[in-house]
Amino acid sequence: MRTRLICLAISAALLALSAYGQTLAPREVPAKSIPVPSTVSPQMQAIIAQPLRTNWDKPPTTPEGWKQLADSIAATVAPQIPAMSERMDVKIEPSTLNGVRIYTITPNNIPAANKNRLAIHVHGGCYVLNPREAALPEAIFMAGFAHMKVISVDYRMPPEAYYPGALDDAMTVYKAQIKSLNAKNIAVFGSSAGGALTLEMMLRAKQENLPMPGAIAPGTPMSDVTKKGDTFLTNAMLDNVLVSQDGFCDAATMFYANGHDLKDPMLSPVYGDVRGFPPTILTSGTRDLLLSNTVRMHRALRQVGTVASLQVFEGQSHAQFYRDDRIPEVKEAFGEIAAFFDQHLGK
Amino acid sequence: MRTRLICLAISAALLALSAYGQTLAPREVPAKSIPVPSTVSPQMQAIIAQPLRTNWDKPPTTPEGWKQLADSIAATVAPQIPAMSERMDVKIEPSTLNGVRIYTITPNNIPAANKNRLAIHVHGGCYVLNPREAALPEAIFMAGFAHMKVISVDYRMPPEAYYPGALDDAMTVYKAQIKSLNAKNIAVFGSSAGGALTLEMMLRAKQENLPMPGAIAPGTPMSDVTKKGDTFLTNAMLDNVLVSQDGFCDAATMFYANGHDLKDPMLSPVYGDVRGFPPTILTSGTRDLLLSNTVRMHRALRQVGTVASLQVFEGQSHAQFYRDDRIPEVKEAFGEIAAFFDQHLGK
């Protein structure tokens, strides 16, 4: 087997050499002016038309600077939460669970089929941003659109705690829940760093011989933080959220990793052994800097036979599929995830 | 209902206006030099490294010119067919069926489950290219990887026949087959123009009250030939096969359309009523000029509840997923389509 692999590697190397000499030529793509596509809703057009994120290439350089940025984002989001909760018809309670800060989001009306189901939410924000209420929009949308109780983990972030603090906190919540609920009745979801954390939780659950949840929904996961993936470059300066792999998100991840090997599957789950993962639905957009991270993760799951569904939305940049519950494409994305959960979760 | 739709349209228009004035700003993307990704096989790296297609922006301008181009491509492909057939362990027989030229590709070993199954292949080539043997590689790979009999339709193309000649020929073959075989045992597949023809066949079958096949696999379909779709621009000059929406493929489609309205769902099936379509698997790549055409079609199918699966391959340009049967990603793509057919076709 090993000999065969070596032969394959040698012949592949020869193929590349013989066809193209020592190096493969890059593609030279000229500058472009790209209009907002007419093939999405007017509301999504307005999102796509927004300029590149302010200060995308000027990340904080001190722990205090990161904390200030996180706090200022949270201060912007917090006032929006009451109206959002009212539109989605849910109520929100903060508490702690075995020392971990959580928010419980409960729909005012839960259909019978979802009475014994729960979705655990791990928020995004490059492992450093979106503390407290800033984490909640995605969780509220899931509770509202899927009509299911959601627990959102307000995990510790730098400078309070570094790798693997976020993962530890998420696992604490998962372990507490599977004591009272069949794991098959639980979904885990989150986007960006939350998508990576969702996948990392599955790897950790395997290590600890815990049962798998019934389904997971990693949205545009940061499945590879080693700067590998074609759309890091092809969608650079096109994605108006992350903008570039050399921007704030990479800096934040380094801050969280705190010197830990970025290739460790607990930071780059695309390199993990994903055999035995539960049914998975992945979401991305054609302008998403992490489109490659998403489709590579989809392929990795399919290569081992996991039930894995991919949805890619026209023209959207990173994580815009949960930008605003009033946008048709957002309802559509959550509708798909809700249907996937309904299909695969136990009752 | 109508009033509600008008109100929605008005409020959407107001949203766009109030937020961004009269026009939405385009995204200005600087020139880039994009290396061949390391995240695909060495064989696929060699394909991705190929320069832009020769003469992509110099299409023929006369019927004779198109015929010469088509013939020269066919002359290049034809000598490769015997070795391809041997590798895939299939035999090929040309014939005619009710006046339509076809090739029947039969695996030398057909498993019991596939004895009464058939896949009908409608080839790509912008409705003008890939006559005769040039159409066969995708059909041979399907027969070989799915272990299923395939009939490839060598439909008439301009200047022999214009719209809807290709569709008429494909329907003639489909109608002949459903006389002797349960439609549910039949798959229909093809890529690019062949992907569009696959979808157009379903629309035509609905018009004629014919039964739907068991499953279809439109690969990177030309589902919108009106130049709408974000990746027509975002992936321009990056996709080394189609290169640009202003290239040879657009010119060829105009030649086939022969003045017919390009927005007709029989040329742009993304605008068709796709209710009742059979289970569908769509395939594209992150550099594909038709990635938007593919994901928009996927969304259109999902919006009406059709079972529809999407696979998107890292770094690939248009239709490179069937470039060569010896490439790991090609085996993977056909493995997925074969599994999808096996899951959904009758026996």
What's the arrangement of secondary structure elements?
The structure is a homodimer of 347-residue chains.
Chain A (H helix, E strand, L loop, with lengths): L1 H19 L6 E3 L2 E3 L7 H7 L14 H15 L3 H8 L1 E8 L2 E8 L10 E5 L13 H11 L2 E5 L11 H16 L5 E6 L1 H15 L7 E5 L11 H4 L13 H10 L22 E6 L5 H13 L4 E6 L14 H17 L3
Parallel strand pairs in A: 5-6, 5-7, 7-8, 8-9, 9-10
Antiparallel strand pairs in A: 3-4, 4-6
Helix pairs in contact in A: 4-5, 5-11, 6-7
Explain the overall architecture:
2 copies of one chain form a homodimer. With 347 residues, chain A is of the alpha/beta class. Chain A has a single domain (61-344), classed as Alpha/Beta hydrolase fold, catalytic domain (Rossmann fold). Helix content of chain A is 39%, strand content 16%. The first copy, chain A, has 11 helices and 10 strands. The first copy, chain A, has helices spanning 2-20, 42-48, 63-77, 81-88, 136-146, 165-180, 193-207, 231-234, 248-257, 291-303, 328-344, and strands at 27-29, 32-34, 90-97, 100-107, 118-122, 149-153, 186-191, 215-219, 280-285, 308-313. An 8-stranded mixed sheet of chain A has the order 3-4-6-5-7-8-9-10, with helices on both faces. In chain A, α4 (81-88) runs parallel beside α5. Residues 1-21 of chain A have low confidence and may be disordered. At the A-B interface, α1, β1, β2, α2 and α8 of A face α1, β1, β2, α2 and α8 of B.
